Amino acid sequence: MGGYTFIIARPEPRMKAHLFALLLAVSSSALAAPPKLALQLCAACHGRDGNGPPSAPRLAGQQADYIAQQLDWMRLGQREDGGAHKLVWDTLKSDADIQAIAHYFAAQSPAPHPAKPADPALLAAGRKLYTEGNLAVGAPPCFTCHGEQGEGGSAAPRLAGQHAGYLAERMKVSDQPQPPARMEMQEILKTLSPDDIKALLAYLATL
């Protein structure tokens, strides 16, 4: 009775490397594909990759938990930002969609800011406030919530790489109703002088 001999060829090391690179590229492109709702709701103002113009905050590299929390507050009518909350309110119904949008933008890389010269004394004052605070007036160090490099955390936004104009706007004291976490920040801002804010903004521009 005749038999058959099967020869199983092993891929060459170079072929293995090519196959691995191809699989990695395919999986990376799939992960990088923005959710449909991110394009519908966010891209027009924040940019496809979250590095939009100064008229809207950067979402690229922002903490996923923080983005998700803001979207949820918008959906519940607890945060208003121009017309963004209306789009979210009308369109974003699913927790899964919120998580998909949040993790997509969190995975993007913030574009570098062009370096701007600043007064060394102003930078030093801003660095001291950020790293040490001013406990005499009740202002804690910023890094305790926002991270040593401004990377943020689950309850506090990333500040590094954020548009200076947006940061300046968010650091204004407001008497308007705010979510609880924002109200806590408002109390801290009330302890800071205009010169303190100016120094902090100068330092944050270096992160």
TrEMBL record:
Q: Which residues form the Cytochrome c domain?
A: 1-109, 121-207
Q: Which domain of life is it from?
A: Bacteria
The subcellular location is: Periplasm
Alphabetized GO MF terms: electron transfer activity; heme binding; iron ion binding
**SUPFAM superfamilies attached here?**
Cytochrome c (SSF46626)
The record describes its post-translational modification as: Binds 2 heme c groups covalently per subunit.
Positions with a binding annotation for heme c 1? 42, 45-46
- Indicate the secretion signal residues: 1-32
GO CC annotation terms, alphabetical: periplasmic space
| One Pfam family in the UniProt entry | Cytochrom_C
Alphabetical UniProt keywords: Electron transport, Heme, Iron, Metal-binding, Periplasm, Signal, Transport
Sites binding heme c 2 sit at: 142, 145-146, 185
Q: Which InterPro entries match?
A: Cyt_c-like_dom (IPR009056), Cyt_c-like_dom_sf (IPR036909), Cytochrome_c4-like (IPR024167), Cytochrome_c_Oxidase_Subunit (IPR050597)
Q: Which PANTHER family match?
A: CBB3-TYPE CYTOCHROME C OXIDASE SUBUNIT FIXP, CYTOCHROME C4
Q: Report what the protein is called.
A: Cytochrome c
Organism encoding this protein: Chromobacterium paludis
